[in-house]
Design brief:
single chain, 292 residues, alpha+beta, Beta-Lactamase, 2 domains, 5-stranded antiparallel sheet, 13 helices, elongated
């Protein structure tokens, strides 16, 4: 294959970034070469030797001119010390290099899913789309993070909010950790279609708006969105430490349900209950009550 498909270009760039993070000592090549090193990280020929392929073959992979075979991918995973998320990323890129990306329309959630969110009165809940756009939420999620209902659909993107909304920088105790994870998740999701106009526009906008985003995107780190915990500094109830868990929606693989929770009896749980009492929707009154 000689066509420089976008998936293969991204695969090559990702492999280059990962070899740049390793030293010969990391992979057992101490004394492999006595010549001065002009760049940090492993050289292309060193990776090729570790994988047992020709230097030209590996060069063409890194230049996006060749899709590696499955055995070569397996060897690259081992040689570059890739974790499970990174392995999934390069496998998806290699498999998709010959597929036509599916067209994406405006995403919405099923009414039944929104009803489920609304019934989770003690649990903040969100539904994310492929690029962390916020497709649906419940009242407690809005009280905890931001009033999504007052935003335009374009503004309701979690990555955009993290980097452009000053309130998000003060909300999270470890803003940098949250921001780096957002970029890594976005990069992971981009494997499906690196040239998606929606993705390209978002990355371009944030690269101009924020130098850190630009640096972290160029680093090509990837991560899955699974579970974890975060400490928040809420402007009304103070500090909360919450667990978050992600669930895939079987009706649409691009949609992820995210739930936030706190252990019962903890201060954070009590503060969630306070937010719940403040944010609970007021039920419509019976019209008969207004008659004289």
């Amino acid at each position: 294959m000689t066509d420089r498909a976008p998936h293969l270009r991204e695969l090559g760039g990702f492999l280059k970034a990962r070899r740049g993070e390793l030293t010969p000592q990391d992979v057992g090549l101490t004394g492999h070469s006595a010549s001065p090193r002009r760049v940090t990280g492993l050289r292309r020929e060193e990776v090729a030797d570790l994988v047992a392929i020709s230097h030209d073959y590996y060069t063409r992979i890194e230049q996006g001119r060749l899709a590696p075979s499955e055995p070569v991918l397996d060897a690259l995973v081992r040689a570059l010390r890739l974790d499970d998320a990174q392995r999934d990323y390069i496998e998806n890129l290699a498999r998709r290099s010959e597929r036509r990306p599916a067209k994406r329309g405006q995403k919405t959630v099923r009414p039944q899913l929104q009803r489920l969110l609304d019934q989770l009165t003690e649990t903040p809940a969100l539904v994310f789309g492929r690029y962390l756009e916020i497709l649906a939420w419940n009242h407690l999620a809005a009280a905890l993070i931001a009033d999504f209902g007052q935003m335009s659909p374009r503004q309701r993107n979690y990555v955009r909010m993290v980097f452009t909304d000053p309130a998000m920088r003060t909300l999270y105790d470890d803003w940098e950790g949250v921001a780096r994870t957002c970029v890594a998740i976005l990069r992971m999701d981009a494997a499906a279609n690196p040239t998606d106009p929606q993705l390209t526009a978002l990355v371009g906008e944030l690269s101009i708006a924020d130098e850190q985003f630009r640096q972290w995107w160029a680093a090509r780190n990837v991560a899955r969105q699974e579970f974890g915990s975060k400490t928040l500094h809420h402007p009304d109830v103070g500090e909360l430490t919450l667990n978050w868990d992600t669930f895939s929606y079987s009706g649409d693989a691009e949609q992820q349900l995210v739930l936030w929770s706190a252990d019962v009896g903890t201060t954070s749980h009590e503060k969630l209950r306070i937010l719940m009492s403040w944010s609970a929707p007021v039920p419509d009154r019976d019209p008969a009550e207004h008659t004289g």
